[in-house]
Structure formats: C-alpha cells, structure tokens
Amino acid sequence: MEFETVCGLEVHTELLTKTKVFCSCEAAFGGEPNTRCCEVCCGMPGALPTVNARVVELAVRCGLALNCEITRYNKFDRKNYFYPDLPKAYQISQLYLPICKNGFVEINDSVNGKKKKIRIHEIHIEEDAGKLIHQNGKSLVNYNRAGVPLLEIVSEPDLSNGTEAAEYTKKLREILLLCGISDCKMQEGSLRADVNVSVREKGSAALGKRTEMKNLSSFAAIKAAVDNEAKRQLSVIGNGGSVIQETRRFDEKTQASLPMRSKEEAMDYKYFPEPDIPPLVISGEFIGSVKASMPELPDEKRARYVSLGLTPYDAELICSDLKLIALFEKTLEITDAPKETANWLLGEVTVLLKCGEVEAEKLGEIINLLLDGKITRDSAKRTLEACVKEGAEPLAFIKENALEIVNDLSLVGDIAERIISENPKAVSEYKEGKEKALNFLVGQCMRELRGKATADSVRKAILEII
To answer: pTM for the full model?
Structure first.
C-alpha cells in the first residue's frame, strides 16, 4: 500500500509584554533564578490572578493576522497536571472557548509549487511553566518563566511533510515578528512547536494513530522530526506492528524520536472552568481598534516591494529581517530609489551590520550622492564603512579624503596620457584586440585618481588618446 504523512502543529509563542499574563511580575527572558515570581504565579493560597489587557490585545492581533474569527465571549479553564516546573500544579488555559478560531495561512505546496492553505483550528491564551535545570545528578527549578503569557496556535492536520511543517512555522514567525506579537527567539524558547505526526493509506479520509514530539525549537528540528517519525511509523507498520499513540522526544543528534509517556487526552487534565477569573467579553469596538492598529502583513509588504521594482527574491530577503525592513523603509524615504536602496542593503549593508549600526540618514545621503554623480561607487562604499566603523559624517569624510568625482576632464586626460606613455606594451596588445589590456590601463588611471573619476570617463579618455 502507498502511505502519506499527516502532520499538525501546536506552536507556542511567548508574547511581547512587560509583565506576565496574570500578575505584575516582569516577563523578560533571563534574570537571576526565582527573582521574577510572586504569590500569584507561584499559586500561593489566596492569591488571585488578573488578566493582562495587553495579552488580550496581542491575541486579537494574532487572530486577525491569521484570518481567524475572534471569540467575543471568552472563558479561562484550569488544566491540572503535576510537573515540578508548574508551581501551582495547574495551568490556566482556554479549552472550551479559545479567543481565536477557524483561521488559515498560506504556504507553498511542496508537491506542485502552488499555494496551500493550512487551516488554524484555534488560538488560545495560556501561561507558561517554569524551567527545570538538570546538573550534577540534581534537578533545579527556576520559576521566572512561570506565568509568562503564551499563545498556542493549533493547526489542523493539513501538513504533508517536514518541509511544509518548517515553512508553516517560518510563516507564523514572520507574521508574529512583523506584527510585534512576539520576539520569536527560538533559542530562548519564545517560539517552539509540538509536532503531531501520523501516517495513513494514501487517499484515505481516516487519520492514523498519531504521536507527539514536544518543544522543538528550530526549523531544522521540526523538519527532521516530522520526516523521521513518519519513516519510523511506516517501518512499524511494514513489520506488522501498530503505531502507539504516545508522546515522544526527538533527539537532534541521532535524528530519532524516543518514547516518553502515553499521550494525554483532555480528560487526563481534568479541565474545569477557572474559578478565579470571570468571563472575558471582547467588544466590537476593541476588535476594531486592534484592527486599525494592524501593520502591513508580510505578504502585502513583499507584494508592495515587488511593485516598486524589487525582485521577489530581494523582497523576500528584506522581509525576513525586521532591521532590514526598518532600514529599507527609512532609507527609501530619503533616496526614492527602491532598487538601488535594496542593492545596498543586501550587499554592503548586510556585511557592515556585523560591525555596527547603519543609520538610514547617512546611508540615504551616500546613495543620493552616488546617484547624483558626485562620488563613485568605490568612494560610496569607503564612506559608508567609515560612517559605520568610525561614526563619520558622509560629506565631511568625502571632503577630507578628496573623494569627490573629478569634473576636470583635462586632469583625467593628462593622467590617461601619462599612463599610456608609461605602458606601450599594453597599448600594443589592445590594438591587437586584447580587451584585458584596456582594462589594465583603466585600472592604472583609476589608481592614480584614487577613485575620484568614473571608470566610464577614464575609459573614454584613454580610447580618445589611443
């Protein structure tokens, strides 16, 4: 029989809020262990949670960005489980009335290259757990992360392989970043995915037994986990066995999944309505205000950049980085030259960003000087490097180093004549049809002029003399 992979993802993202979801403790990453927790996030008797309004706003923003319906009447539920990193022994979540539902995103179909719609079943608000640190044979617990606001984005099982799962997660990350919902730092755990994988006979409507692999924190791990787990399940079936529904752990070193425990169902968590938080009613006015504040979404931004003359590839590269987007937008206001600005961003600027900050005002000024024919491209590169590494001002640096293009054609002609007289062999070779000889002469002149004349003007002067 021919089989196919079926995959769905539960993507958890920590929200960009100053404080936690149900208390006023700082929600930032890091800090001394157990210094960013209080009676509320540690579940002390008598401590009452209060919903962070910013969390609700970001959840609605996420739902709108992912084409979801917004639930107007919300409730929170208590999810009971007993892990050492969960100080309350329960997690406040949303099972029955999630804040967003029935959305979708589009990715590239890995088979036919067309757009494929991945449905989003729901998005719900919940609190993060703490973190266990295992060292020297002991387990330590840090509750700083307990209570940090999370959105869990649950897809339908519409993904067909690891490539699609990774692309779907990348698409979510791009939207979350651009909308200011999360910093999506996978290395810090603020974006991570639980992967559900099953296999079934091709063409069948019934789903196979699924396994879940938790807390995958890189696109490569997500792709490898899906593909390798599908292969494992096919091997089990091929050998006459049955896939067991369970939670597994994906080992990135061995590229294999290992069994952890049987898969929990909703009944195992003994959900019941959270008694300490009243129902949350979201008004149409609130949704309207969030919608009015929505930024341009990634697909819209890419399309606009292409309409300005950028290639789809260049637009994709710029939209993959918030810093590049901001720098492109600000610089473009100064230059009004989209393609030239993009070329600089994806060339010299990308390299120089490793050395320091590239200021849009200085970059725009340099590009304009280049486009106006006042400096050569080499001088522009040299000037930008000085601006980034030394904090130089473009015009001052150009004047101090005599980098303006020479408008005195007689000076260019004088130098060209001298270079020609000093290199008779190169002149003879050019006359014999060797184009490289002409390039050599141009290079010698440019060296003498220290980049203060364009190569075209130097070439023209040499050819006229010859």
So the answer is: 0.83
